[in-house]
């Protein structure tokens, strides 16, 4: 029976070593997960700070334009001119919209005030919410079961004919 005892001792040693190795791997995995989590948080914080800087630059530019837009210093003159041209184009387009609406009223074409309110509100706060959904794949089929429908030979999955 000593052969069996030796076998059991070796099996026990192997089991202890395997458990220690699994414990070490779990500790390494936990540390890596903490690192990945920290990096993700830092990246989100960086993105938020970049947004803050971008908004501050916009505010700084607006303030400069309001105080120096009519007589900007040389490095700013081209940008101020672009702003003035864009503002002029906006004014022309707004005048055209007003003319179109006035002509519609004169011609008795009904105006949908609710639609205009939605358009105006959308233009004012141009935030868009996006919902992302993920479709789950079909579970694998057991032997003998039919899987999801496949297109007949000669057709692509979108339903068209293959060339």
Keywords:
163 residues; mainly alpha
What does this structure look like?
The protein is mostly helical. The protein is 69% helix and 0% strand. The radius of gyration is 34 Å and the shape is elongated.
Distance N terminus to C terminus? 74 Å
- Give average pLDDT, whole number: 79
Number of DSSP-assigned strands: 0
Number of helices: 3
Percent strand equals under 5%
H and E string: HHH
Shape: elongated
Structural class: mainly alpha
Low-confidence stretches: none
Helix content: 55-70%
Radius of gyration: 34 Å
Q: Tell me about the largest β-sheet.
A: none
Write the layout of secondary structure elements.
Blueprint: H1 2-68, H2 74-106, H3 113-124
Compact description:
With 163 residues, this protein is mainly α.
